[in-house]
Amino acid sequence: MMALSPRLRVWSLLMGIFSIRFFTMQGVQNVFLSQATKQAMTLFLLSNLIACGGGDDTPGPSNTAGKHEHVLELEDMQREFIVYVPEQVATMQNVPLLFMFHGTTGTGEKFYNISYWREKADQENFIAVFPSALTYCYREDTDYDGHKELRFTTKWASGELGNTGDEGLPLCTADELAMLPPEKQALADHPLKDDVAFVDAMLDFILANYSIDPKHIYASGFSNGGGMVIRLAVERSERFAALSASAGVIRVPPLPAARAHSFVFAVGAEDEAGLLSFNQGLPANEQALSLPLDESLFTVVPAFKHMVVDPLLEVLQLKDISIFESALINGVQTGQFRFANSMVGEGNSLTVIIMAGLEHQYPNGHNHPIVMADYLWDFFKDKRLP
Prior knowledge:
Strand content: 25-35%
Distance between the termini: 38 Å
Number of helices: 12
Order of helices and strands: HEEHEEEHHEEEHHHEHEEHHHEEEH
Strand order of the largest sheet: 3-4-6-5-9-10-11-14-13-12
CATH class of the largest domain: Alpha Beta
Helix content: 25-40%
Shape: globular
Number of strands: 14
Radius of gyration: 27 Å
């Protein structure tokens, strides 16, 4: 027998107020209520009808299996992202949600294919999102020679893009844009856009159109995408249960997040981009050739501590007290520091993991034995928003 909604159950009772029947040994007898009793029962049932939410029986959002490509109109720009729903998730409700932010030059499509988060979603029954950054023309000193070269590529507005200061990445001038081929001009001829607003818009759209558990939303990012995730850790801690950056550093002021949450920072011991940055200003005989996999990391490469760890401790409101562990993951040596002494009485933590043999890549089991998605999902899955 079909179950009635709360609203329909209340209406059924209202319809029966004026003629209630008792089943007795002698048969069915009609009992007619007094006018006062009818009024009292009617008021009671109508109050319950209001409490049932005004009678809206519209079903909530559901999940349809497959790769879904979405476009949102935001700040006069087309913003693109992929939502991947595993086959078995189509029959499920209130599933976790994971964002993967690509690095400079990347796209959502690229990391849909290479990050291993799509395969992990199949294994663990969650929905994965792969957004794409906009294309910009800007200047960046990539080789630290004191001259900012012109670049034309995708880039997240993680904090330094559009900044004209010494550490910033200024956008190209009108004259520089005019030197580009017409097809490139069309992609890059726009002002700096708000990528945090883009994340908000994606979250609102996905929560309205897919069946998501809003308490279990996570984000991972690589390189420039890692910097974007750190910005979200600072500015959107109330929307993400936990986050992780791989080979990306903070590009915004390290203000304490509104909510103390847990975070993983991961990087390869042979990350050439990171080493170039950490070695700046040091004489050749003091420059690190790789990141140590032991407790000497912060003394051998002090810039790593100053540029990566200290700002994250401020954001997460953690004390500078860590426990070090050396561990093998898929046969690869790793060094892991865990900071878990909260300054605000929360149970959050920062994990810093250095992986042997890994260059400036997001490890996926093919480019390196470690699968970052495996490691991070073990970290993410028991974290939830209050």
